[in-house]
């Protein structure tokens, strides 16, 4: 007897996915559900109308971001408005007339360690929506060695606890987008599986479509059952450093043109041109126009200054210093940093060009010997000085009888 396969998604019949037989054709229950959604919208299932009790307005989103992300005011404002509009479009737009609101995906441009991933994670956490984070450099077109683009959706589904409706309201953050730029504006004759090919593969899921994904990830194969994810309401946030795009912007602005009575502008005059970036600049960089057209909102992040780096260490609600102080508190000890020590940590991170993400590793290196002895430091206050950070010196130990 011939094996039954769905004429739409090629899945085989299962107990939890029965088939409807037609004239020499079959359609599975999942495809019937998807077809109903396409024809009649979202009203067929109350599980798909997962509406939050309160929809945070832009100022509320911005305030939350302020608690966890230092600086980057312009990016936080842009992101707050974009996220609010996205979820307002999903939960509040009843389509009572013929006007349909298209979703706006987001492109974050900023140096390594400037807070792109943290912004996305913070928004997802406080909106209580699942988030999947992926590195664009690990993605390939289907059929090539590497991770299929569709596997990003599998990660999101897993983050949603295998709840398809919840996943379809989630956030996908794709980092290192600049690393998949094609090498030139002319298309390569050979197939580019890690650059333009990945950009083309991303188009389908970013613009909004029903995608078949393997339930447990991995490669697709013909005899496999699939789950279907509608990406129409998934918010895609893409990020990248885009090193070198400044020169493209400056050329467009005529910054390097020389003429009679003109002098070449200094780099200092052009160091903050990123906020002037346009779509054509990204095309010249190597991002295909079709993909740029689906990333409607662009926010630029500034390089982190020494002062910002010190603030990042101590001010956020879950700052690195507060986390280490909590570790010491568990062992009935007090951890204190001198201001010069915090500046030394920040200076090391700037020197390594790792941005804020390098702060924790520097702290781990500097506090390793102290934490090794931590269980024996009950009742002590440990004061970390600049000499501890720069030269590995011993900290100041003060016996404190008030420590419980």
Structural class: alpha/beta
What is the end-to-end distance?
Answer: 76 Å
- Share of helix among residues? 25-40%
The main sheet orders its strands as 4-7-10-3-11
Count of separate DSSP helical elements: 15
- Secondary-structure element string: EEHHHEHEEEHHEHEEEHHHEHHEHHEHE
Mean of the pLDDT scores? 82
Gyration radius over CA: 26 Å
> Would you count the extended β strands for me?
14
Q: Characterize the largest beta sheet: strand count, sense, and whether it forms a barrel.
A: 5 strands, parallel
User: What is the general shape?
Assistant: globular
Low-confidence segments, given as residue ranges, are: 42-50, 142-146, 185-193, 262-270
Strand content: 5-15%
Tell me what the structure shows.
This protein has 404 residues and is α/β, with parallel strands linked by helices. It is built from 15 helices and 14 strands. A hairpin with a 4-residue loop joins strand 1 and strand 2. The termini are far apart.
């Amino acid at each position: 007897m011939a094996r039954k396969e769905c004429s739409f998604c090629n899945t085989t019949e299962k107990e939890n996915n029965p088939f409807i037989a037609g004239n020499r054709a079959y359609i599975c229950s999942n495809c019937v559900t998807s077809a109903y959604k396409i024809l009649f919208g979202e009203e067929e299932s109350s599980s798909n109308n997962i509406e939050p009790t309160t929809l945070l307005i832009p100022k509320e989103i911005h305030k939350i971001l302020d608690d966890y992300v230092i600086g980057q005011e312009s990016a936080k404002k842009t992101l707050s408005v974009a996220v609010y509009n996205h979820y307002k479009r999903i939960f509040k737009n009843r389509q009572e007339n013929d006007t349909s609101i298209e979703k706006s995906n987001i492109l974050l441009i900023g140096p390594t360690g400037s807070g792109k991933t943290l912004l996305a994670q913070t928004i997802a956490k406080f909106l209580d929506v699942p988030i999947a984070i992926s590195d664009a450099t690990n993605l390939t077109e289907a059929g090539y060695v590497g991770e299929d683009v569709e596997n990003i959706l599998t990660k999101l589904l897993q983050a949603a606890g295998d709840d398809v409706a919840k996943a379809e309201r989630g956030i996908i953050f794709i980092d290192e987008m600049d690393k998949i730029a094609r090498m030139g504006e002319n298309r390569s004759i050979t197939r580019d599986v890690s650059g333009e090919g990945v950009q083309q593969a991303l188009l389908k899921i970013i613009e909004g479509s029903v995608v078949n994904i393997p339930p447990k990830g991995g490669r697709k194969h013909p005899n496999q059952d699939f789950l279907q994810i509608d990406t129409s309401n998934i918010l895609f946030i893409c990020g990248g450093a885009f090193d070198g795009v400044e020169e493209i912007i400056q050329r467009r602005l005529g910054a390097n043109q020389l003429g009679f009575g003109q002098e070449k502008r200094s780099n200092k005059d052009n160091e903050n041109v990123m906020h002037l970036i346009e779509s054509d600049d990204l095309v010249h960089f190597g991002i295909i126009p079709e993909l740029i057209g689906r990333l409607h909102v662009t926010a630029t992040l500034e390089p982190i200054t020494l002062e910002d780096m010190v603030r990042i260490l101590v001010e956020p609600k879950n700052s690195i210093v507060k986390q280490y102080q909590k570790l010491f508190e568990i062992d009935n000890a007090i951890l204190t940093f001198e201001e010069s020590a915090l500046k030394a940590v920040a200076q090391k991170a700037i020197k390594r060009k790792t941005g804020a993400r390098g702060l924790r590793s520097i702290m781990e290196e500097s506090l390793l010997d102290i934490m090794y002895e931590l269980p024996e430091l009950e009742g002590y206050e440990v004061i970390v000085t600049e000499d501890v950070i720069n030269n590995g010196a011993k900290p100041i130990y003060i016996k404190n009888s008030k420590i419980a």
